[in-house]
Amino acid sequence: MMLIDRETIDNYIEETNQSLVEVEKNLLILENLGGNIEISLARSVYHAMHIIRNGANLLSLSKIKELSQKIENVLGLICTERLTPNPEVINILLQGIDRLQQLIALIHSNEDMDIDEQSVLLTGLTSAVLPDEIKHSVTEVRDIPIPDGNYVFHIPEFNLIQEIEQGKNIYILIYDLIKDVQEKNNTPLNFVRFIQQHGEVIDSVFDIQSIGTLEEQVFGSEMPYFVLLASNLAYEQLIESLGLQSHQIKKVKSAINDLIHPKTESNQQNLVSAISVHHRKSGQKDRLELLNALFCELSFVMDSFSNNSDKEILTATERMRSALNSFDELLNQENNVLASNVLWKIGRNIRDFAYQSNIQAKLELQCGLIMMDRRILSRLIEPLTAIIIKMIRLVQSNTPVQICLNLIKNAEMIEMHVSFFNPHILSQETHLDYLNEEKKINALCADIKQSFEVQTGLSVLIRFPLHLRIIPGYCVSIDEQFYIIPRFNVKDCLINLNPSMWRCDDNSTLSLLYNERCIPVVEISNTDLDHLKNKKTLIVCEVGNQLFGLAVDSPKILERDAICQPLSKKLDLNPSIVANCLLDKGQIAFVPNMAYLANKLL
Amino acid sequence: MSKKVISPGQDIVASMVPEFKKRLQEIIVEEGITELDIDLTGVEMVDSVGLGAFIATHNTLSQKNGKLTVINASDDIYSLFKTMRLDQHFEIQQG
Q1: Which of B45, B55, B63 lies closest to A208 in CB terms?
Q2: Could you read off the pLDDT of A10-60 as tens digits, one per residue?
Q3: A475 with A460, same domain?
């Protein structure tokens, strides 16, 4: 039985990723506030990290737990105003966050990823700012002996201090896995998870000598297991919750007595579980109802096309366009996000660039409540960062630079203005060379232009049409031309085609054996059959109930979201394609007219 | 050093442990194997007695300066061994 199921892990990944983005944004805000620490903000960052660590603990993600613990330690010092979040401190924290994001991205295979560099920096930071009397606690290990046993827990002192400062009590729990688990028909994994629900397992150890060897009679009779637990619960509460006998629990006192300081503030907040499962069923229901209403509207409009009056057909056409636009908006709703929720990353990039170049540069983001498609926004980060860095480099190195990125939405488009906060920072007319970035921005269906005015200085303007057609698809190449095959039309992909799989009928139509049936193969670029047979990859496409194959050259099928642009007049004559789009590197890709290709076979 | 891989191919639970233990004894004591890999492919669950079998095998091998490695552990079993800090005694590799 899978106790930590895929859904729980996926929820943890999703929520941790969201949380880390917030942490990263808030760290940048804390840095900008400098010495005026906003304690409530610092605490929210601290608690977010605490939840991430608790989740990692529950899911036994050791590296994520260890690194988040170290980040939390530093954040704890900021919350208690023992450490100022200056750029050096924030830089180390951000490096830790970056590494955590990488660990999360490779959650199932991060055992080979080391966290040494970040750990050394974070531990050094913690150690450096602590008062001399507790400075040693970061590297010092405290021995906590297990009563009546031969074992000792070795725990970093600072970790114990952090638990104590959160108002937690430290307990040793004494179990016998045979008596307390096996004989109660429980499994070890369920047993451990149950303990973890009542506190944080700081460490645990088996008395492996008591278990004996394979030859010894003692094997199987007892399995002593000790747990060092930090819990907000009081002694009696824990006994009751865990169903313990009094001899099974010892509160750790003398071994840590010197670490327990009188606290001015008790942190007894109920910590929210990091792996709470969100069922967004109500949202889905609303969406289905809206889709259903639009579908009814469309059916109604279809009926009104049977009327022959021009005026009625015109009205019906408008209604259909309106319904289709609403469909489009609704179906793309999940991709529509506040622009600031994605573009803030440019501020982080500029901050890192300035920090590494030892210059003073900052980005002021003014996005208001403008919403945009996240696929466009995420692809804008890299070229916009590059353009802003180029602008910063135009300024003399010892001059502080502030750049504004301002978004404006009007009835037809969204405009992005990039300009200097101080328009006179450049003494003479200057222009940017941004050919590479221009290609990438054009690929997003946007245009870019720069201007230099005496009053306003150098500014860059990027304009996006309000309505973009974005087709999720697979990018393939056929005879040195790129195509985006809509994802919803792709049923399968056959690679390493064998010549014996091809069939050719009397009408010279090429077919291929697929799942014990022959599917016809269509060509887009007027190639002869022999040429088609040389292709090594076949995309199996489905349009309506019709299956057909598209023979392609690409050894790899890359997933792409195509931002479609209208065809030029010349290309419009080609019925095989419906739109074109620019790839990130500036190459043109066509979107095939899948319905036309399917009809060609009839 | 002589090495061997053993694949129980079923859950390591109390009902199968006596037979499993006998097989492990044969391998270590009679065949003189000192480097043993236990391949957990197809093993979905280990109960407390099963955990004891791993620890006893580790103890037996340690007396002979040998080494136990658990390979191809499922996500759950890997997580269990890590949480119980058994990775501090012998090596555990995920499947």
Answers
A1: B55
A2: 889 999 999 999 999 999 888 888 777 888 889 889 989 988 988 888 787
A3: no
